[in-house]
Amino acid sequence: MLIKILVNALAVFLAAYLLRGVEVKNFWSAIVTAILLAIVNAILRPLLIILTIPITVITLGLFILVIDALLLMLIDALLPGLKIKNFWWAGGFSLLLSIINSILSWLIL
After folding, report:
1. pLDDT for the residue 48
2. Comparing C-alpha atoms, which of 47, 104, 50, 40 is closest to residue 72?
3. What is the mean pLDDT of residues 32-37?
4. What is the C-alpha separation between 94 and 100, in angstroms, rounded?
5. How far is CA 91 from its chain centroid?
6. CA distance linking residue 28 with residue 35, whole number of Å
């Protein structure tokens, strides 16, 4: 579990480095972001996906990207060490974070 959080934190740090609309103050902020992201993805994301099943089906699953961006905006509001410029940067951050996290998990875990 600890290794997975550290891999997620590294992915957050790398994705923020690559996107100029997203800022992470330091690696500690990236670790806290990864922890909050794990908590939000475990509790709120499944609930939101269940509540938005009709619109998710209509958009062929693309509405999940909106949910992910909104959850990142929530974490941005809660954490002073993370700054996301707007919704579109949050969407891009979500996609890039997913890609980097998949690659790092494949390499490390």
Report:
1. 96
2. 40
3. 96
4. 10
5. 9
6. 11
Residue 24 φ then ψ, to 5°: -120, 125
Rg over CA atoms, the chain? 14
Cα 28 to chain centroid distance, Å, stands at 16
Residue whose structure tokens are 């951050």: 93
Evaluate if residue 87 carries a pLDDT over 90: yes
Query: Degrees (nearest 5) of the Cα angle 97, 20, 3?
Result: 30
Residue 38 pLDDT > 90, yes or no?
yes
> How many residues does this entry show for the chain?
109
- Dihedral of the CA atoms 97, 38, 63, 50 (nearest 10)? 160
CA dist 38 and 58 (Å) reads: 27
Tokens of 26: 């330091």
Structure tokens at 2: 């600890």
